[in-house]
Task: inverse folding
């Protein structure tokens, strides 16, 4: 444990975001394969993180679609290789992989399967911060076997998203019996030191004896300072990333964050020598794959006007370049502000941020605003993504809901398990069934066909241990369903689904 010069009796916990949010923020969620992360997993396990923000249904789909990897196997292998560090999944509880909403039976199955395969922690973040929905999802997660349920309130700034708004919603969660932790989730990197100082007491009060966590992004350079002020104000855990998967639009870098906290008298229990090996692994991997490392960002006050997440800013710029209209970029960002107000100030997180950005681009490119509207945006106005924080513009709503596709979308049926076994077969596993229910058949077929092929070597292997080699060998032996290894008081259990 490292101690600061004063107040060192307060130990700050850390959640690692490298493999999920860092990968998503900087490498479009496609940068890391199972061998890439499995090679360094035992070393990550030695660092001493409270948990690893590891996956989401989007990341699971990427494993199948881009890498032809079994996402369930990835969870099982990493869980076995990291017995001391719980793996976490993040979810809205509204869908699984597909953009089509999922019925509650599908969500319950997804929760049960991730728990069965090795996910021990779940971070739940509803796009509209609906306390009732968050409570229902927390109850479902507990019922389906999740050990630690973490409820998040997603930060935004608007005429509606005031500090009183967040205080009220935090208080509404205070007596949630299935909430183990509460966290302030700032995907846009919008928090200021003043804001986190004002919000912290409300989160601490709502959590009571439970732990409060702080999550932000470095998109406009504020997060490192926000973390220090947040911890001083009462947050007990911060979310950080390692090496090239930190900074930029990702989370603050872990070693620098620990130095900052130590300078203010706080302590931590991380093994930073092991973390340096982890960071070097990802640096070598980034170099081998030609992936851009995160870099410190300049403060950008304009960002507070459009609030578009960093990844969406990059995507929007690339889209306009592909359309050979890059000169429209600033106009589109201005239009994002207008569109968001007309849509009732939604929080700009996945998937709504995509709807707002694409609509803003359409409005700027087309001769008439709102002349072309995506099906997903129509579904937003139909209320499929929850109630907006403020009333939508009635004139815009009338224009959108008068379109020809509205009747078809109004009665869109959610994905359900009804008839799934008849469609996909009685003999396949529940894990495969869920993938086939939510993904194109050819993508799942390609993943299954790749199972018997040799696994590709990771681009870099520092930190690789014999345990990783053993995990790979077990995965290729269908005759082995369970394996247990005990050594020096530690036990690793591997099970095939």
Result:
């Amino acid at each position: 444990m490292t101690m600061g010069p004063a107040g060192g009796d307060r130990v700050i916990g850390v959640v690692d975001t490298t493999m999920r949010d860092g990968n998503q923020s900087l490498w479009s969620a496609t940068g890391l394969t199972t061998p890439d992360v499995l090679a360094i997993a035992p070393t990550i396990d030695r660092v001493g993180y409270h948990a690893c923000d590891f996956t989401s249904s989007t990341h699971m789909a990427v494993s199948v679609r881009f890498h032809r990897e079994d996402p369930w196997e990835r969870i099982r292998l990493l869980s076995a290789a990291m017995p001391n560090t719980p793996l976490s999944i993040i979810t809205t509880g509204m869908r699984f992989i597909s953009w089509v909403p999922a019925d509650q039976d599908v969500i319950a199955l997804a929760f049960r399967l991730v728990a069965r395969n090795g996910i021990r922690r779940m971070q739940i973040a509803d796009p509209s911060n609906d306390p009732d929905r968050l409570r229902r999802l927390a109850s479902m997660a507990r019922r389906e076997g999740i050990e630690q349920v973490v409820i998040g309130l997603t930060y935004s700034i608007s005429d509606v998203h005031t500090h009183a708004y967040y205080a009220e919603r935090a208080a509404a969660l205070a007596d949630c019996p299935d909430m183990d932790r509460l966290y302030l989730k700032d995907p846009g990197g919008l928090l200021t030191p003043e804001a986190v100082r004002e919000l912290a007491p409300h989160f601490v009060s709502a959590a009571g004896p439970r732990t409060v966590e702080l999550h932000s992004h470095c998109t406009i350079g504020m997060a490192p300072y926000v973390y220090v002020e947040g911890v001083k104000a009462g947050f007990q855990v911060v979310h950080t990333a390692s090496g090239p998967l930190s900074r930029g639009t990702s989370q603050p870098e872990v070693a620098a964050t620990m130095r900052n906290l130590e300078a203010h008298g706080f302590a931590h229990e991380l093994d930073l020598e092991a973390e340096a090996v982890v960071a070097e692994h990802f640096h070598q991997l980034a170099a081998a794959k030609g992936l851009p490392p995160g870099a410190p960002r300049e403060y950008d006050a304009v960002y507070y006007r459009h609030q578009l997440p960093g990844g969406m800013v990059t995507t929007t710029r690339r889209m306009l370049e592909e359309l050979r209209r890059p000169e429209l970029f600033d106009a589109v960002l201005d239009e994002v502000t207008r569109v968001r107000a007309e849509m009732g100030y939604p929080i700009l997180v996945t998937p709504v941020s995509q709807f707002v950005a694409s609509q803003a681009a359409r409005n700027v490119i087309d001769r008439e605003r709102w002349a072309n509207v995506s099906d997903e945006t129509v579904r937003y106005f139909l209320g499929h993504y929850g109630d907006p924080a403020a009333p939508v513009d009635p004139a815009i709503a009338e224009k959108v809901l008068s379109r020809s596709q509205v009747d078809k979308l109004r009665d869109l049926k959610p994905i359900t398990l009804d008839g799934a076994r008849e469609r996909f077969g009685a003999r396949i596993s529940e894990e495969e069934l869920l993938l086939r229910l939510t993904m194109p058949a050819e993508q799942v077929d390609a993943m299954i066909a790749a199972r018997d092929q040799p696994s590709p070597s990771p681009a870099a292997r520092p930190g690789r241990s014999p345990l990783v080699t053993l995990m790979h060998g077990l995965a290729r032996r269908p005759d082995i369903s369970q394996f247990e290894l005990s050594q020096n008081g530690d036990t690793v259990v591997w099970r095939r689904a």
User: Anything to note?
Assistant: The domain at 303-410 is CATH 1.10.472.90 (Cyclin A; domain 1). The CA atoms of residues 131 and 173 lie 6 Å apart. The beta strands are 13-16, 51-55, 87-91, 119-125, 148-154, 181-186, 211-216, 237-240, 482-487, 490-495. The longest helix spans residues 272-289.
